[in-house]
């Protein structure tokens, strides 16, 4: 069969989380991001997970403190018309530019809870043990809870639904005595927590996370949020949704939400959930129950990266042990950092800066997983503890190497604890291939086979960190090196696209 009859090799896709927690609250994020979309596409980003764009409790809120699903920066509510990120008009301009540039947007849907109620309502409740939410630590009594949502700035536009105490299963504050606790709301109209495994079984029952916890067993809540999903799909051109905190609300509801969206709007939409837990069996169980029309962020891989980065000369060959990308690669979104794993936070999942280029090579240049690059690593972090872009400026080059060269059969050289390598052989129509070497100790060297068809070629490191040339022998092998605690990515120096690595990625997104 001639090559023209063969199927073209699908292009590698890469997503980016398009924000970090400490982006300035100046309502200009949509505008800045929109200007950078063409550059991001040029360097290999195909889809951007945008921050929660619904109105939060204040104009400084990141959107996880969600107030109104139907306010995308359109109504004067909670101190401003714009969200922290900007106005709905600016969001639509971003969406238009992204679509024109061939970049998809993934919406960050915060459906578990609400914040900043408009008024209090009295209801019956019982206090529960924070470490075992099935155990009562008080008798039933009346509390005064912030659970009344009227949306006065929006009125009835888009949705006439108003929220009352019986639309929620729990709160964490009683205004009658100014006491904080976890209160399970009781009453004829409130069945209490969702059952496990409809929600996660951590802490006995992890239905309650924060704020005023929505009760998806109430038909009015279900109906309003299902309607919102369809409304959002009509308002904003999207390619998918990232679901926040899926351990904490009804799995059955989420299945219904995805099926209805998929049938009406979302052919080819991508759905990914934040199920942040270092338990592979819990994650694969969730995927099984969701029917595998769904992906999860590979939290166990992030924990592995963290452990490797914080140890001296650890065994790199174990990097993929007990990870989602190893067990269910088709459903794994691989990542190094996100807004929950900032480097200065005392988190188990914090990753040391020296290890980030190695970790990004391990998610971007291999043949499994859907990699997600983090805005804070590309553009730096603002706030009280600012950080510059990570990876010594190499991250855009790693993204571009994925886009141009990381294709075809993979051969692993996981034969030494502190220095590993792998080769991608290319395909009939993406023929260049690449060879990657990673070391978490001293300078590394690997003799690897890239193919006899490359005999006589001169290969160089696209990152520019290794400066010599490797001449491929008649046997198709070369001696590829990398520096101490470093990574190198070797490609034929005359390969198509090599000139693109000479350009500079503009990481100064905040310039006026």
UniProtKB/TrEMBL annotation:
Q: Which NCBIfam families match?
A: PRK09441.1-1 (NF006968), PRK09441.1-2 (NF006969)
**One family name in Pfam for this protein:** Alpha-amylase
The record's listing under CDD domains reads:
AmyAc_bac_fung_AmyA
One GO biological process from the UniProt record? Answer: carbohydrate metabolic process
Q: Does the keyword Cell cycle apply?
A: no
Q: Which UniProt keywords apply?
A: Carbohydrate metabolism, Glycosidase, Hydrolase, Metal-binding
Q: Name one GO molecular function term.
A: hydrolase activity, hydrolyzing O-glycosyl compounds
Question: Which SUPFAM superfamilies does the record cross-reference, listed alphabetically?
Answer: (Trans)glycosidases, Glycosyl hydrolase domain
UniProt similarity note: Belongs to the glycosyl hydrolase 13 family.
Q: Do the record's keywords include Metal-binding?
A: yes
Q: List the cofactors.
A: Ca(2+)
Mind telling me which InterPro entries this protein's record contains? A-amylase_thermo, GH, GH13_cat_dom, Glyco_hydro_b
Which SMART domains does the protein's record reference?
Aamy
Question: What range(s) does the Glycosyl hydrolase family 13 catalytic domain occupy?
Answer: 13-402
Q: Which residues form a coiled coil?
A: none
Superkingdom field: Eukaryota
Q: Indicate what this protein is called per its UniProt record.
A: Glucan 1,4-alpha-maltohexaosidase
